[in-house]
Every structure is written in structure tokens, then in C-alpha cells.
Input
Amino acid sequence: MRIARVRVGRRTGYARVSESAVHLVRGGLFGALEPTGESHPLSEVRLLAPVRPGKIVAMAVNYASHAQGARGQASLSPIPQPFLKTPSSVVGPGDPIVLPPDAGRVDEEAEVVVVIGRRARGISEAEVDDHIFGYTAGNDVSARHWQRDDTQWWRAKSANSFSPIGPWIETGLAHGSDIGLVGRVNGEIVQEAHTGELVHSIRRSIAFISQHMTLERGDLLFTGTPGTTVELHPGDVVEVEVEGVGVLRNPVVAG
Output
């Protein structure tokens, strides 16, 4: 099932998504999703970020290809290396990625994103699937100069608009499946991988994080980005396509 957060006129709510329409439902994302009987063409509603997370956890250097591209060598950690992004950095499909004027180089990072569906504290890898609500596409936009020069990654990873997600949440993907991921800039493929290539699997990452930090319903896990990332410029259009989910598309503008 595809679930979107939409704006219809002045109203905001959730809807089930079919091929060319949205069908509004009552209640919140984790409710019964009872149909209201109201439907609209997909082209006539505005898609919003599909979830408003309490927190965002992201995995650093979780593809060997990214370690090689970023550092010139495959320097991989034997344990997952999560970091935090702020919820205020979230934007939705079609929203602009704003390049801060003093940021220097800013790159796209295409990622598969997991939406947590149940509170997870101290769970095992075998229990992880029961705590996943669904999957969406995400872009871990990153200011490289700030990432290099600051002691912490607070603005390099969490500047306003640096966490686009969407276009909706897919709840029907088989957990543990080898999900395809493609990143494009101006229609050109710049990143391509499958989650089977992750250094630390989705199950391992979530179980590891839950030993030290409680994951709540609606939290997000950015699972990592592959290969070499590309610098963004005003006027670019960035796409993140997750197999079985859809395409997240965002324009890039100067701040």
C-alpha cells in the first residue's frame, strides 16, 4: 500500500495512492486508514513529506563504493556508524533544496529510507521486521566544506531543506529484499546500487541503534548512500528513485 500525506485545497491529511489518484482516509498515518470516500486525481493534489519524524538517524559510509569514492579507499567500520539529522531539515517532493550562500560545495546523497512503525528498544535483528512500517526515498543533502571543517555535522547534514523525503510511503515491500536505488541529477544517473550491497543491513542497523537509542513510531532511518556523490548547483533537478516505491524529485535553488 502506498500512503501519502497530501494537501487538498486548504486541508492536509493522509491518502492511499493508486496509479493516478489519491483516496483520502480518516485519522493519522498509524491509524486504521479508513476511506472517506473522497478521491482526487494525483495531479491535482500537492504531495507533502509523508511523515513528520520525531528524529532522523542516518548511516555513515554504509556502502563500500561510497567509502572508495569519498576517501579513496574502502575504510569500513566493523559496526554501524549512525548519526542524527534534525526533523526541521525535512522537506517533501517538489520542495526546493536551498543551497546556503556560505556552504561551499553541497552534494546530493540518494538513499533508501525506512519508516519505523513500532517503538523499538533493545530489539534483535530477528525482531526488526515487526517494527518497520514502510519505505520511502530520501536525499541526505550534505555540505562538504562544513562536514570537513566543523567539529560536528549539525549544519552540514541538517541545514534547512537538507532532508527531502517522499513521494509517499510504501508498506508492501518485502523486508530484507534487495531494493534498487538510483540517483539522478538533471536526468543523468549519478548513483546506482541495491540494498543488498549495504555494509550493515537494515536489520542490523536498526537492531544496533535500538540497543542505545529508542526508536519511536514515525522515526526515519536513512540507510546510506552509494558511490560518488555529485555537487549541486542552482537550477539542477535531483531525483531519487527507490525500486517499488517511486521517484522523489526536488529542484535546487540558491539561498
The CA atoms of residues 91 and 174 lie 26 Å apart. Helices lie at 64-71, 144-149, 202-210. The mean pLDDT is 96.
